[in-house]
Design a protein that fits this description.
Layout lengths: L8 E5 L3 H12 L3 E5 L11 E4 L1 H9 L3 H5 L7 E5 L5 E6 H8 L4 E4 H9 L7 E2 L4 E4 L4 E4 L3 E3 L2 E4 L6 H6 L7 E13 L7 E4 L3 E8 L3 E9 L11 H9 L6 H7 L6 E7 L8 E2 L2 E3 L2 H4 L8 H15 L6 H30 L4 H15 L50
Helix pairs in contact: 1-5, 1-10, 2-10, 7-8, 10-11
Length: about 425
């Protein structure tokens, strides 16, 4: 398929949250969008995702803010616990909303994917279409067809084929030192959200809508490990079976084959840029980070809105993508660094170090729940670079020359 002078064509590689957010944002800006996805279908897979206020404001730009807020199951008190159940520190949804101007919404990843995909025109998402090559001139090839695109958005994940082609000398993702488990199970009760930190172990429990609970866990392990019997519930019982309520009960409620296990990798060495030629890298393809601040998906959504804001139809693509790199690379590098710092705290395993960590958190907690939110200062308070242009529910793409927000809104707010 060739470029057209009537409507510029953007090809998005990857139909995850970042790729779909970019596709929706570009569609609303007037681009013709094609999303190429390796999987054969956008199936109901995955687990939970934390949508912090920064990402929620970006989703407002896409006109889905109300729907995402409706996914929140709990906004009360939560906090940090020890394996025996003792509370180390507490905070609340209200404190987070007051500090950052909005709530943290925990949603099912698949439901957010479905919501974003539903905002695209019929036929925009082409599943079963793995990309085999892409070059800076906008030439994209899959196993079945080829495209000559005005813009290529590479949102193909931490093992990005496109990133490897653009930056072949980059070392790629590094193992972060721990493995992650995720599961969603029926919830017989309204569990209070919490994270519990042990010696090199972490467990999190967060309510979801629909009488479900999302749980996640990490453990310091060599990469490539699997449960000896092939059932990751067995491994979770071994590591967390004697922890406080409701951890054992939640593990017991998991159905066979529903526990997801992944070694955690991150880009320890930042890329020199997030673009080359007509290609922009987005999300994990650009800045894969550890999950410890819950910002991986949030930063991808930010990327999507900033990219679409800068790369309007008729704009100078080279200049727009250079501006995108200049804005996004410093911010995401800082978030990656801060997330990794928190991740290191969760890997401490010696008794004296863990006791010192718990004492420090408990001391900070005495000054109030707002201090516990300090790790997200400068992250969760981010605002999009323009006013929402789809918040009214009007999916009409803005017309050429139509303003996108006030002059102040159109300025750089990425800080």
């Amino acid at each position: 398929m060739s470029r057209t002078s009537q409507q510029p064509h953007a090809v998005v590689v990857g139909a995850g949250i970042g790729g779909l957010a970019a596709a929706v944002a570009l569609h609303l800006r007037g681009w013709h969008v094609t999303v190429l996805e390796r999987a054969r279908a956008l199936e109901h897979v995955g687990a939970g995702i934390a949508i912090a206020p920064n990402a929620l404001r970006a989703l407002e730009v896409l006109g889905v803010g109300d729907e995402v807020r409706a996914m929140a199951a709990f906004q009360g008190e939560g906090g940090l616990r020890r394996p025996d159940g003792r509370w180390v520190s507490r905070t609340s949804g209200e404190a987070a909303a007051e500090r950052f101007g909005g709530p943290v919404v925990i949603a099912h990843r698949a439901e957010l994917v479905a919501l974003l995909a539903g905002r695209l025109p019929d036929g925009a998402v082409r599943t079963g279409n793995p990309v085999v090559s892409a070059d800076p001139d906008g030439q994209v090839a899959t196993e079945h067809e080829s495209f000559d695109a005005d813009l290529v958005v590479a949102a193909d994940g931490i093992r990005s084929v496109v990133r490897s082609a653009l930056f072949p000398d980059h070392p790629g993702p590094a193992y972060s030192g721990f493995t992650n488990w995720r599961l969603v199970v029926p919830a017989p009760a309204a569990y209070v959200p919490h994270e519990s930190w042990g010696r090199g172990l972490l467990w999190g429990t967060v309510p979801l809508t629909g009488d479900r609970v999302y749980c996640y866990a990490t453990a310091v392990t060599p990469p490539g490990g699997r449960s000896a019997d092939g059932d990751e519930r067995t491994e979770l019982r071994r590591l967390f079976g004697d922890w406080h309520h409701p951890v054992p009960e939640v593990i017991a409620a998991a159905a066979p084959g529903t526990v997801l296990r992944n070694d955690v990798h991150h880009l320890a060495v930042p890329l020199p840029a997030f673009h080359r030629g007509r290609i922009a890298l987005l999300g994990d393809a650009a800045h894969a980070m550890t999950p410890n601040l819950g910002q991986g998906g949030c930063q991808a959504i930010e990327d999507a809105v900033v990219l679409a804001h800068l790369a309007g139809p008729g704009d100078d693509t080279a200049a727009a993508l250079a501006a995108y790199s200049a804005q996004r690379l410093p911010r995401t590098t800082d978030v990656m660094r801060r997330s990794r710092s928190v991740g290191r705290l969760t890997t401490w395993s010696s008794r004296p170090a863990v006791a010192l960590r718990d004492t420090l958190f408990a001391t900070v907690n005495r000054f109030g729940p707002r201090l516990a939110l300090h790790s997200l200062d400068g992250i969760a308070d981010w605002r999009p670079p323009q006013a929402p242009y789809a918040a009214s529910g009007d999916d009409r793409a803005p017309q050429a020359g139509e303003a996108h927000g006030t002059p102040e809104d159109r300025g750089d707010r990425t800080r």
